[in-house]
Every structure is written in structure tokens, then in C-alpha cells.
Amino acid sequence: MSGSGKGGNNRRRPFKRRERDSDKGQNGGHNAQNNSQRSGKKISDELRRYTPPPKVWLDRPKWVPPQLSTEPIPSPDCPYCGKPIQDMSTAITDKSSALPVHFDCVIARLAEGEMLEPGDAVTYIGGGRFGVVQFLNPSDSRNFKIKKIVEWENKENRADWRKDIGDHYSIV
């Protein structure tokens, strides 16, 4: 069997480091210590040990988390029903005046303006849009057909009151 390591009994020869000429005269490793003892000079422990230069630590300012607003969230009156909006996170922007409106008031107003057939409902379908939805089987809400889409909120122009309310929930 060959000792090349390709197949066979996988025996390998032990690794032996060869000395180089450059290692003999350096102040590191066991060769330098042996050479210095042979020549009669004794090298102190400080010279034999290598100590890297000290690292420079930068003083960085300590991170302080941002503070949430302590002001209470305003509760303006709904222009449709006149009642105050208690939960501003569920409010939606009015199409014409850009004021906050109750979500249920918008659905009621859209339902009044549409000719709804039996099985139809006005629902929010996401992205600031409402839809007239026909449920084919009233007991199964997964089976439906969107008959009409009503664009309510403009995606590009975000209302100013939403920005103010958002600062109460998240600063980032």
C-alpha cells in the first residue's frame, strides 16, 4: 500500500516542522531561547513574550432611546355623526375634507348610497378601499364576489392627522 493518502489504510506520517534560517535568529519561539542559552545570554521573560500594542477605545456617546409623546391623543368629533372619535387608530380619512371619520360611519354612508341586493354588504377590502361584496353562501364568508370597488383614501397623500397619531405609537 502506498503512503500517499489515497486509499489504503489511511495511515499518515506525523507532521514535522522544518527549521528555516529565518527562524533561527529571531527573538521568538523555542529556537531563539535555545540559541540565546547556547551563546550565554539570557533573555528576559518580557522580551520573549510578545505583547501587542494597546488598543485605543473610542468614547462613543451612550444611546438613549427616544421618548414617546406624553401628550394625550386628541379625540376630534366625527363630521358625519358629530360624536367624538375615541379610538383614533380605527379612524379613516374623509374623502373630501381629509378629517378623521369613524370607520362605521363610512360604511353606513357607502351602504346608503349603493343599491344593495340580498346577500350584498359594504366591506373594507384594504388599501383605503371599500367594496360592495356579494356573499354567495351567507354561512360561508370565504365564498364571495366583489361587485364594485370604491377608492376612499388616497395612498400617495397621507393625512396630517395620521402622522401626528403615529408619533404616539412609534418614533422610529
Please outline what is shown here.
This protein has 172 residues and is α+β, with helices and mostly antiparallel strands. The chain has helices spanning 21-24, 29-39, 45-48, 103-113, 160-169; strands spanning 92-93, 100-101, 120-126, 129-137, 140-151.
Can you give a write-up of this model?
- The protein is α+β, with helices and mostly antiparallel strands and 172 residues long.
- It has helices at 21-24, 29-39, 45-48, 103-113, 160-169, and strands spanning 92-93, 100-101, 120-126, 129-137, 140-151.
- A three-stranded antiparallel sheet has the order 3-4-5.
- The longest helix has 11 residues, at 29-39.
- The radius of gyration is 39 Å and the shape is elongated.
- The mean pLDDT is 77.
Shape: elongated
Structural class: alpha+beta
The number of helical runs is: 5
Strand content: 15-25%
The N- to C-terminal Cα distance equals: 69 Å
Helix content: 10-25%
Strand order of the largest sheet: 3-4-5
Integer-rounded radius of gyration: 39 Å
Q: Average pLDDT, to the nearest integer?
A: 77
Poorly predicted regions? none
Biggest β-sheet description: 3 strands, antiparallel
H-E order: HHHEEHEEEH
DSSP summary, beta strand count: 5
Question: Which SSEs are present, and which pair or pack?
Answer:
Blueprint: H1 21-24, H2 29-39, H3 45-48, E1 92-93, E2 100-101, H4 103-113, E3 120-126, E4 129-137, E5 140-151, H5 160-169
Antiparallel strand pairs: 1-2, 3-4, 4-5
Question: Main traits of this protein?
Answer:
172 residues; alpha+beta; 3-stranded antiparallel β-sheet; two-stranded antiparallel sheet; 5 helices; 5 strands; 23% helix; 19% strand
